[in-house]
Amino acid sequence: MIKAVRGTRDLLPPDTDLWNRVDATVRDVFARYNYHEIRTPIFEDTQLFSRSVGEETDIVSKEMFTWEDRARGQSEKAQSLTLRPENTAGVVRAYIEHGYDKKGTLQKLYYVGPQFRRERPQKGRYRQFFQIGAEIIGPPSAGSESPLRDAELLEMLASLLDEVGLRGWQLQLNSVGCAEDRARYNQALREALQPVVHQMCADCQRRAETNPLRVLDCKVPEDQPIIEKLPRILQYLDEPCREHFAAVRAMLDAVSIPYTINERMVRGLDYYTRTTFEFTHGGLGAQSAVLGGGRYDGLSESLGGPKAPGIGFAIGEDRLILGLQAEGEKPAENLQAYIAPLGTGMNMHALKLARELRRAGVSADLGDESFRLKKSFELAEKAGARFIVIVGENEVAAGQFAIKNLESGEQVQVPRAELAAYLKK
Ligand code: HAM
């Protein structure tokens, strides 16, 4: 038997009803904040990711689905392609490719779609997963560097999670400064690690060489006392970065968005500058980050584009759904009517009635005249319908239908013309 590939899964009803409700809510929120949708390809030139996410990151060095694409004709050349592990790089590529900087305005773009990383699968971690993300990007003259962008984005996220119905989230906030700050901080970390690193785990010993920032990400209990004593990034920010971060925090305070400063938060992508953040949720176990994001002021230039500071985030939709389910969220049963034709020749009349009702906005499912009444009732209950509508010869002739509320058991006769309104109320 052929099964779904390791780390991938089928999303099935009734869960998909919850997914669709989340999608509809976030699209509505994005519209209110004046974001518009962008759809970029699911695969891109491999270099796009190595140059943006970073050669040294786990994502690029271990987790990408990459293949050599053969040339099919003389006019094509073979090239290395990769299933997108994230969508920020694709959005910035599109921004540059379509000359968006010439518009001179901020671009506020959102996306919803699958991403691919060859990680070790576990609860909340898949090889194909879904992200809901957004980016604000534009020339500095359009205000793209302003701390107001950061604060407005975080305020939107808090509202979005509230509207989707996720309770008990926590915002973890940090600033990683600019490239020069990070170079100084890395140097300080290297120096602080040098006398102690031999006591640490093998991963940390390697990280101390290649990318000392990643040491902060270590989960090994024995290493924690050492990590606690390492220098902190916020002490290494230059004056403009310090002021930027202070302004973001002051605005979050002004709109009463609670947050915790977490100087150990290391995001797994290299393009970040200044503000970085994650929203975590207790119901998710080890994979507690529902979403992550931050500022990426030099990303466009590193891809050969114009100066275009930006900030964005991506929600792990799989994790958001797990969080909602952990809080007891159930997809709404929304079938309003089960239409049960009763007796030979009644299918046609049931179809006509179903058409009328559905066109009037009633959700309705349709049985079959070959079913006995008892079976129709059972099927109506299984379908989660609120009402069953019996379509027999007498009903059609009288223009009046027997309907039963399957929750209360109440049974009434309703004239055809009033049926849709009755079923919807
Ligand atoms: P990221 O932190 O790599 O950031 O991913 C964002 C979110 O995607 C995570 O917080 C998590 O919820 C979800 N996620 C990541 N990997 C998996 C997985 N294997 N299975 C399930 N969910 C996963 C980014 O991707 C950045 N592009 C975010 C961003 C946008 N930064 C600026 N703009």
Structural account:
The strands form three sheets. This protein has an eight-stranded mixed beta sheet with strand order 1-5-6-11-10-9-7-8, sandwiched between helices. It is of the alpha+beta class and 425 residues long. Helix 1 (15-32) runs antiparallel to helix 5 (147-164). The chain is built from 15 helices and 16 strands. Residues 86-88, 117, 119, 124-126, 129, 131, 133, 135, 268-269, 289-294, 312-314, 316, 318-319 line the site of histidyl-adenosine monophosphate (HAM).
List the main descriptive attributes of the protein structure presented here.
binds histidyl-adenosine monophosphate, 16 strands, 425 residues, alpha+beta, 5-stranded mixed beta sheet, 8-stranded mixed beta sheet
Note the topology.
Elements: H1 15-32, E1 36-37, E2 43-45, H2 46-54, H3 58-62, E3 66-69, E4 79-83, H4 88-97, E5 107-116, E6 128-137, H5 147-164, E7 169-175, H6 179-193, H7 202-210, H8 224-228, H9 239-254, E8 260-261, E9 273-281, E10 289-295, H10 299-302, E11 310-316, H11 317-326, E12 337-341, H12 347-359, E13 364-366, H13 373-382, E14 387-391, H14 393-398, E15 400-405, E16 411-415, H15 416-424
Parallel strand pairs: 1-5, 7-8, 12-13, 12-14
Antiparallel strand pairs: 2-4, 3-4, 5-6, 6-11, 7-9, 9-10, 10-11, 14-15, 15-16
Helix pairs in contact: 1-5, 5-9
